[in-house]
Amino acid sequence: MSSNCLSIDIFEAHTFAALPGGSLAITLGALACHGVAAFTLLNTNYGLDLSVVPVSTLVAFIIVAVVAVANVRLPVENLYLFLFPISIAVLLAANLIEPGGQPLETLSGGLVLHILLSLAAYSVLMMAACQSILLALQERRLKHPGEPSFAILPPLETMDRLHLVMLWIGLGLLSASILSGFLFMDDIFARQVLHHLVLTSLAWLVYVVFLSGHYLYGWRGMTSDVGEFQTLNGEEFPIWVLLSSIVVLTCLSAYFSGTETAMMALNRYRLKHLVKQRHKGARKANRLLRRPDRLLGVILVGNNLVNFSAATIATVIGLRLYGDTGVLLAPWVLTITFLIFAEVAPKTLAALHPEGWSFRSVYILQPLLKLLYPVVAFINWFSNALVRLFSPHQGEDNENLSTEELKTVVNEGAVSVGERQSMMVRLLDLESVTVNDIMVPRSEIVGIDIEADINDILDAAATSQHTLLPIYKESINNVLGILHLRRMARLVNMDNFTKADLMQLTREPYYVPEATPLHTQLLNFQKEKQRIALVVDEYGDVQGIVTLEDILEEIVGEFTSDYASNMPEISPQEDDAYVIDGSAVVREINRALHWELPLTGPRTLNGLVLEYLETIPESNLCIQIDEYQIETLQINDNMIKNLKIRRLEKLKPADHDEED
């Protein structure tokens, strides 16, 4: 760092010694070295250093750079006599004083740009303020010849032109600083920085009013064209002023275009969540979105006003530069410019970051809507009248989401919640699944026959893996009650207990229709204070048993400690096939192997194959259902006992269109 600063001292010292009439090349060389030194001081290994010494070095560099640029067209080299000693003193201080500030490590690139633009604007406008003081002293010297002379300074007219140049450059940098803060600062409207925004906006407004009045009404007594240094008669603006207006209007158009896209791209559900969190920007955006016609009205009024103004100015520029040919070329050039910088680029950026853009824009849109409300109200009234001619039932569309739409929202919009996302989707699926789909079939029901010997009953209870057992007589269609095995512990210490004692511990059986949807049955379990139900068909015959645990497993997945239930019917083979029991439930096979066997027909794999064949095969055979190759291995008692299934590679249709 020290060697860089010393080299700059030498360059500027040589330049200073050569003045007046110093070499421009040497001046630019010294300026370049000064810029490198400022960059090195600011950009440390630990982050951006905004302590006094680095910032002072940057400010001095910007001031000298502005004067050096102005010196190309204005004879202001005498000002170097004031500026170069200041720059040399700042650089010497950088060599002698160790940086005392704490570097900022976590700043984003956009925020760094905002800080640098703010420093640049401050530097130039501070120089313009000093310039105005020198102008006042020079004018006073002209009115009072006896006071000390300022002959070393450039002429008054040159100083006035330099003052205007600095104001225009400072205004441009200040505008860029405000725009970058709007784009890259998340808390630009926070209370702790709101006063900075208000004061900066007032300063920007003062500069705009002054420069506008200078060119429109000749404030300060003269109007200088920085490009040609000619006095205007007030009937036309310089070309560079018109071009600057095009740039400003392009930025405004980009703001309106991006805001329209961002507001329409907001996630309504996340917006409601942020409103509940009392996010200020979200609450304002939500209020605006309640009346989309007014929101679009104010955006489109502003955008069209800006676009047509830019088109008018572009036509004037084309006419003055190229005559009638320029008038023809202006729309084409302006269209390409606006498409890139005022449409495609800002809308793409707004679509990528809708919240950041929208929550800042609403602070401008709300007062703008109040300002333009009469115009917006009239346009909305007229446009709504036209819309009613083509859509008389507008506003009657149901905005409530269907189950399938809600599942899509969960799948696409909750990618960061892991297993909870799958649970939410399965919860929504309960509506399309009945108790018949998940029940334990009649043939697999484990119960106690009250007609059995008392010792057999005790053995069955002791070896049961279930807590609740149905007590039946002769047939499962004749269920007498449901026994909780924990209650049976009361009979263990009794010397003699009878079947009547056992029946006193049971509760009445609870029956449900086989077509009951799971979400309904879950509520019924809660309402009836039950945990197990017997599933019956339309004839009243028991078809199976469903428990509360079965329904909960449909939501959260398997959590039972019953290891015998972990799909022993599925045996993987070496050739990537599976030997599966014919009584296995198709839903459980799909869940265990992540397959997509049809679920609209029979419950079991045996039933699925028999339905496809429409007959009971007499010998083993091989079929294909969708992308699954199924081979029967054992057929007994009119039932397919075992099957071998292999999933083939899913075939893609020849006319399949590639998704975007």
From TrEMBL:
<protein>
    <submittedName>
        <fullName>YfjD protein</fullName>
    </submittedName>
</protein>
<feature type="transmembrane region" description="Helical">
    <location>
        <begin position="295"/>
        <end position="317"/>
    </location>
</feature>
<dbReference type="InterPro" id="IPR002541">
    <property type="entry name" value="Cyt_c_assembly"/>
</dbReference>
<keyword id="KW-0129">CBS domain</keyword>
<dbReference type="Pfam" id="PF03471">
    <property type="entry name" value="CorC_HlyC"/>
</dbReference>
<dbReference type="InterPro" id="IPR046342">
    <property type="entry name" value="CBS_dom_sf"/>
</dbReference>
<feature type="transmembrane region" description="Helical">
    <location>
        <begin position="362"/>
        <end position="382"/>
    </location>
</feature>
<dbReference type="Pfam" id="PF00571">
    <property type="entry name" value="CBS"/>
</dbReference>
<dbReference type="InterPro" id="IPR036318">
    <property type="entry name" value="FAD-bd_PCMH-like_sf"/>
</dbReference>
<feature type="domain" description="CNNM transmembrane">
    <location>
        <begin position="235"/>
        <end position="423"/>
    </location>
</feature>
<keyword id="KW-1003">Cell membrane</keyword>
<feature type="transmembrane region" description="Helical">
    <location>
        <begin position="109"/>
        <end position="137"/>
    </location>
</feature>
<dbReference type="InterPro" id="IPR000644">
    <property type="entry name" value="CBS_dom"/>
</dbReference>
<keyword id="KW-0472">Membrane</keyword>
<feature type="transmembrane region" description="Helical">
    <location>
        <begin position="329"/>
        <end position="350"/>
    </location>
</feature>
<keyword id="KW-1133">Transmembrane helix</keyword>
<feature type="transmembrane region" description="Helical">
    <location>
        <begin position="237"/>
        <end position="258"/>
    </location>
</feature>
<feature type="transmembrane region" description="Helical">
    <location>
        <begin position="78"/>
        <end position="97"/>
    </location>
</feature>
<dbReference type="GO" id="GO:0017004">
    <property type="term" value="P:cytochrome complex assembly"/>
</dbReference>
<dbReference type="Pfam" id="PF01578">
    <property type="entry name" value="Cytochrom_C_asm"/>
</dbReference>
<dbReference type="Pfam" id="PF01595">
    <property type="entry name" value="CNNM"/>
</dbReference>
<dbReference type="InterPro" id="IPR002550">
    <property type="entry name" value="CNNM"/>
</dbReference>
<dbReference type="GO" id="GO:0020037">
    <property type="term" value="F:heme binding"/>
</dbReference>
<dbReference type="GO" id="GO:0005886">
    <property type="term" value="C:plasma membrane"/>
</dbReference>
<dbReference type="InterPro" id="IPR044751">
    <property type="entry name" value="Ion_transp-like_CBS"/>
</dbReference>
<feature type="transmembrane region" description="Helical">
    <location>
        <begin position="50"/>
        <end position="72"/>
    </location>
</feature>
<feature type="transmembrane region" description="Helical">
    <location>
        <begin position="165"/>
        <end position="185"/>
    </location>
</feature>
<dbReference type="InterPro" id="IPR016169">
    <property type="entry name" value="FAD-bd_PCMH_sub2"/>
</dbReference>
<comment type="similarity">
    <text>Belongs to the UPF0053 family.</text>
</comment>
<dbReference type="GO" id="GO:0050660">
    <property type="term" value="F:flavin adenine dinucleotide binding"/>
</dbReference>
<dbReference type="InterPro" id="IPR005170">
    <property type="entry name" value="Transptr-assoc_dom"/>
</dbReference>
<keyword id="KW-0677">Repeat</keyword>
<feature type="transmembrane region" description="Helical">
    <location>
        <begin position="24"/>
        <end position="43"/>
    </location>
</feature>
<keyword id="KW-0812">Transmembrane</keyword>
<feature type="domain" description="CBS">
    <location>
        <begin position="505"/>
        <end position="561"/>
    </location>
</feature>
<feature type="transmembrane region" description="Helical">
    <location>
        <begin position="197"/>
        <end position="217"/>
    </location>
</feature>
